[in-house]
Specification:
It is built from eleven helices and five strands, in the order αααααααβαββαβαβα. With 235 residues, it is mainly α. It folds into three domains: 60 residues, lambda repressor-like DNA-binding domains (434 Repressor (Amino-terminal Domain)); 69 residues, no CATH class; 72 residues, Rossmann fold (3-Layer(aba) Sandwich). The protein has a three-stranded parallel sheet with strand order 1-2-3, with no helix packed on it. The chain is elongated.
Length: 235
C-alpha cells in the first residue's frame, strides 16, 4: 500500500500517540533517571520516599503499568498462582475454584487485581463477563473491551441477552402456574449490569397481576447452602 508523505506523517503520529508509555517516559515526567525508576519498581537499593512518591505520581499521571513478564525475567518471580482443573462446568471444580479465589482476596479486590495483572502483562483487549467494580476501572485500562452481559460503557462492545424478556417470561410462567407469592433472587443491585432488567420485568409483571413483590439480594458466589438459607428465611 502506498501513502503520501502527509498520510505517512499522520500514521506515524497515531502510532506514536497510541504507544504505551515506558520507563523513559516515567523518568522524564518524574525528573529522574530511568535507572531510578527501575530501582523503584523493583524495590532495589536505597530510594528516598520523596523520590518514590515522584515516580509513582508520574506513573499515575501517564497511566504507566509495569510489565510483569519483563520483571519476571529479571526477578525470576511472577507472583501468580496457577490452577488446573479438568473442566470448569463441573459444580465441584467450580466450587473449589471459588473457595480458592475467596481465600486469596474478596470479590471486588480480586477483580481489580485481575485488571492490574492484565495491564501489566500487556494484553491488547479484554472480554469481561463480570462486574463487581465500576465500569470506570475498565475504561481506564485504555484497551479494546467486549462485555458479555455487563455494561462497560460507550467505549466497549456489548453482547447481551434479552434480560427484560427473560424476566418477564419467567414471572408470567409462574403466575400462569397459579403461583401467588413469587420470590425474585438477584445479585448486588449496585452493579450496573443488563441482568438487572430481569428484576425490572419481575416488578412490572407482579404489579400488573396485583401480586406482592418479594426481592432479595444474595451474592451468586455464595454456596448453595447459603442461598438456600436466604430462601428458607423468607418461606
Amino acid at each position: 500500500m502506498l501513502m503520501g508523505e502527509g498520510a505517512m506523517a499522520r500514521e506515524g503520529a497515531r502510532s506514536k500517540d497510541s504507544a504505551k508509555p515506558g520507563i523513559k517516559e516515567v523518568a522524564a515526567v518524574a525528573g529522574v533517571s530511568p535507572t531510578t525508576v527501575s530501582r523503584v519498581l523493583n524495590n532495589r537499593g536505597y530510594i528516598s520516599q520523596e523520590t518514590r512518591d515522584k515516580v509513582h505520581a508520574a506513573m499515575k499521571r501517564i497511566n504507566y503499568t509495569p510489565n510483569d513478564i519483563a520483571r519476571a525475567m529479571l526477578n525470576g518471580r511472577l507472583n501468580l498462582i496457577g490452577m488446573i482443573v479438568p473442566y470448569v462446568s463441573s459444580p465441584f471444580h467450580a466450587q473449589v475454584v471459588q473457595v480458592i479465589e475467596h481465600t486469596l482476596a474478596d470479590r471486588p479486590e480480586l477483580e481489580r487485581s485481575y485488571i492490574d495483572m492484565l495491564r501489566r502483562n500487556m494484553v491488547d483487549g479484554v472480554i469481561v463477563n463480570s462486574l463487581n467494580i465500576g465500569a470506570e476501572a475498565y475504561a481506564e485500562m485504555g484497551l479494546s473491551l467486549v462485555g458479555i452481559d455487563c455494561d462497560l460503557g460507550e467505549a466497549s462492545v456489548q453482547i447481551a441477552s434479552d434480560s427484560y424478556g427473560i424476566g418477564e417470561l419467567a414471572t408470567r410462567r409462574l403466575i400462569d402456574d397459579g403461583c401467588s407469592r413469587i420470590l425474585c433472587l438477584r445479585n448486588n443491585s449496585r452493579m450496573r449490569m443488563p441482568a438487572n432488567k430481569r428484576t425490572d420485568a419481575y416488578h412490572d409483571v407482579v404489579e400488573q397481576a396485583g401480586l406482592p413483590a418479594l426481592v432479595r439480594e444474595v451474592e451468586f458466589v455464595k454456596s448453595d447452602d447459603e442461598k438456600s438459607a436466604v430462601v428458607a428465611k423468607i418461606l
